[in-house]
């Protein structure tokens, strides 16, 4: 996951007054997102290819670039990126839905503004 995802997640934690170790939480959360993206990619394959890929991945888990290299042999970079983006969006959405009842109005407002800013790309209009 890109560094910006880590920064964004820590910003969310700051807005909700998260009292634990923000860095550790963000790292764990992003690792979970990566695992979900890999699972989603594997599940998109036919059963025989799923089994093959799982076998190869299990042999490459300890290598620093092993998993990434293996995935690139099965999926285009764009598909891997899309899977990561979807897993991140779903993970953040589920997390916010889970904590929403515990947030005060100020925290909800901050998160709403952050969400609006994320959905509004920097656009330049031409006449």
Question: Could you give a short description of this structure?
Answer:
The chain has 127 residues and is mostly helical. The chain has one domain (3-119).
Summarize the structure in words:
With 127 residues, the protein is an all-alpha fold. The chain has one domain. It has six helices and no strands. α1 packs across α2, α2 crosses α5 and α3 packs antiparallel against α4. It is elongated and about 50 Å long.
- The residue ranges in which pLDDT falls below 50 over 5 or more consecutive positions are 122-127
CA radius of gyration is 18 Å
Order of helices and strands: HHHHHH
- Distance from N terminus to C terminus (CA atoms, Å) equals 37 Å
SS elements, strand count: 0
Broad shape = elongated
Major pleated sheet: none
User: Strand portion, in percent?
Assistant: under 5%
| Tally of DSSP helical segments | 6
Summarize the amount of helix as a percent range: over 70%
The computed structural class is mainly alpha
Instruction: Write down the domain tally.
Output: 1
Topology, element by element:
Elements (H helix, E strand, L loop, with lengths): L2 H13 L6 H22 L3 H14 L5 H9 L2 H23 L5 H15 L8
List keywords for this structure.
disordered C terminus; 127 residues; mainly alpha
């Amino acid at each position: 996951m890109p560094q910006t995802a880590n920064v964004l997640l820590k910003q969310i934690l700051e807005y909700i007054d998260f009292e634990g170790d923000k860095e550790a939480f963000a790292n764990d959360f992003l690792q979970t997102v990566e695992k979900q993206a890999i699972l989603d990619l594997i599940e998109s394959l036919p059963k025989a290819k799923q089994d093959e890929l799982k076998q190869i991945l299990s042999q490459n888990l300890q290598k620093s670039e092993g998993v990434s290299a293996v995935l690139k042999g099965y999926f285009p970079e764009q598909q891997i990126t899309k899977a990561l983006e979807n897993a991140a969006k779903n993970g953040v959405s589920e997390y916010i839905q889970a904590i929403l009842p515990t947030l005060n109005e100020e925290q909800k407002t901050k998160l709403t503004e952050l969400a609006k800013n994320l959905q509004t790309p920097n656009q330049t209009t031409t006449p």
